[in-house]
Amino acid sequence: MAQIYGGGFITVTAAGFSAATGAASASTAIPNASDGNKPRYIRVAGRNECYVKLGTSGVTATTNDILVQPADSVILAVPNGVTHIAYIQGTAAGQVNVVPLENT
After folding, report:
1. Exposed, middle or buried, 37 (CB in 10 Å: 0-12/13-18/19+)?
2. Residue 15 CB partners (closer than 8 Å, separation 6+)
3. What pLDDT is attached to residue 3?
4. Span between the terminal Cα atoms of the chain, in Å
5. Of the ranges 6-10, 11-15, 39-43, 55-59, which one carries the lowest mean pLDDT score?
6. Which residue in 5, 41, 76, 102 has its CB near the most CB atoms, within 10 A?
7. Is residue 23 part of a domain?
8. Is the Cβ–Cβ distance between 101 and 8 less than 8 Å?
9. What is the pLDDT of residue 1?
10. In which domain, by residue range, is 36 found?
11. Residues 81, 56: contact at Cβ < 8 Å?
12. How many CB atoms lie under 10 A from the CB of residue 18?
């Protein structure tokens, strides 16, 4: 049975990363949770409109992928085998922030 995020409060105790979004897709490894393992969920926030996509080291994001609204966030499940997140700007360059969630 699949685990689902039940909403509510989140706990972040391990460092994530922030990266600039640009006109070309870039990707970064998903940060580990505080126990050293890949998290089951991540929180992705965007300073400006951006698009993200989960995958392996060669993943590429396009403007047809998951939209993160300006100054908003999404919580994404991290499926088995997924190691990276790709990101690309929308209409303007900005920044994306990715953190692992602990209490899920």
Report:
1. exposed
2. 31, 99
3. 57
4. 15
5. 6-10
6. 76
7. yes
8. no
9. 40
10. 17-100
11. yes
12. 12
Residue 49 has pLDDT above 90, yes or no: yes
Helix (H) or strand (E) holding 51: strand 50-55
Q: Beta partners for 86? A: 27, 53
Distance CA 44, CA 51 (A): 10
Q: Give the residues across from 74 on adjacent strands.
A: 44
Total tally of structural domains belonging to the chain: 1
Q: Which amino acid is at 74?
A: V
Q: What's the CA angle centered on 51, arms 48 and 57, to 5 degrees?
A: 125
Residue with tokens 């400006």: 48
Show the tokens assigned to 50. 């951006």
Given this model, what pLDDT does residue 13 score? 82
